[in-house]
Amino acid sequence: MYHSKITGVGHYVPENVVTNHDLEQLMDTSDAWIQERSGIQERRFYRPHEKGSTAKMAFHASKMAMERAGVTAADLDAIVFATLSSDYYFPGSGVLLQDMLGMDTKPAIDIRAQCSGFLYSLSVADQFIRSGMYKRILVVGSETQNIALDLTTRGRAIGVLFGDGAGAAVLEQHNEPGKGILSTHLHSEGKHAEILCLREPGTGNDTIIYEGMHENHDAINPQMDGRFVFKNAVRRMPEVVMEALTYNNLTLNDLDMLLPHQANLRISQMVQKLLRLPDEKIYNNIQKYGNTTAATIPILMSELWEQNRIKPGQLYALTAFGSGFTWASALIRW
């Protein structure tokens, strides 16, 4: 039976740093208010004049991951690309990245599972490799979110939370049992779709674009019931981590590190508390980047790689919760 393992990770974040103090100039907020509610101190925003930003950031992250894995574009069999902020309404950004990398006619698959997008994509790629269909797949999460944010007092509850960035991982076939991606676990609950969503552009009004749509603030800006999202996230993330451990006949004591999606530092801290994990077994970077949605988990892995904190034989749990609702986990023996 085939298995898959991650052989290289990479990430890219824009150079443009936007601090909480910068946002104080745009809205009625404060550094203390933002940090108390989210733990965020700064985030990165792609500059508006740089076109094609989601695919371009993915390209930079992918090149880093490929270099670390020791592979070239010619070695890749496919791309699985997660984003909620594609460069175009259609096509998805996967084909744009495929062309930038010069991958000839290799397939590019786009996944829309928002904050769970990278784990959904990792699961899809893992199943392709387990089936024997492909041997080496590039898995990407990339987001340009600042252009959809209302950076005024009216939109501050959401506007202060998100940032831009990209992360990537090279997944390769191997035949060592008990190593690599042990399992992935995916869930969704669509009855809560409108709790966290961006309504337009879409076909809910029988047309994608209509006269006056940009005057409809509630339709063209992200909407979120933060308390309800928090309540569900702190329930589902520990639940799906335990699902992965139980499936593999492992316990929390076997876990070396948890890499949770970075939506809110208070969510990560509550998940840590519920799982009774010490500080050294969880990694957070939301302070620097905000919520980078599908890019979050590969950015976490790439930073740990750079810090030489990923060791062979260690057990990592990855988990995410987001719009949809969607949530997921992956268990990896490095």
Word description of this protein:
- The structure is a single chain.
- The protein is α/β, with parallel strands linked by helices and 334 residues long.
- It has two domains: 3-174, Thiolase/Chalcone synthase (Peroxisomal Thiolase, Chain A, domain 1), CATH 3.40.47; 180-333, Thiolase/Chalcone synthase (Peroxisomal Thiolase, Chain A, domain 1), CATH 3.40.47.
- The protein has helices spanning 20-24, 31-38, 53-69, 93-101, 117-131, 156-159, 217-220, 226-247, 265-275, 286-289, 296-306; strands spanning 3-12, 17-19, 42-44, 78-82, 108-111, 136-143, 165-174, 180-188, 196-197, 223-224, 257-260, 315-322, 326-333.
- The longest helix is centred in the C-terminal third of the chain and has 22 residues, at 226-247.
- The chain is globular and about 55 Å long.
- The model has no long low-confidence stretch (mean pLDDT 93).
User: Helices and strands, in N-to-C order?
Assistant: EEHHEHEHEHEHEEEHEHEHHHEE
Q: Looking at the chains present, what oligomeric state does this protein adopt? A: single chain
CATH topology of the largest domain: Peroxisomal Thiolase, Chain A, domain 1
Average pLDDT, rounded to a whole number, is 93
Name of the CATH first level of the largest domain? Alpha Beta
The description of the largest β-sheet is: 5 strands, mixed
Q: What is the H level of CATH, i.e. the homologous superfamily of the largest domain?
A: Thiolase/Chalcone synthase
* Helix amount: 25-40%
Task: Kindly state the number of beta strands.
Answer: 13
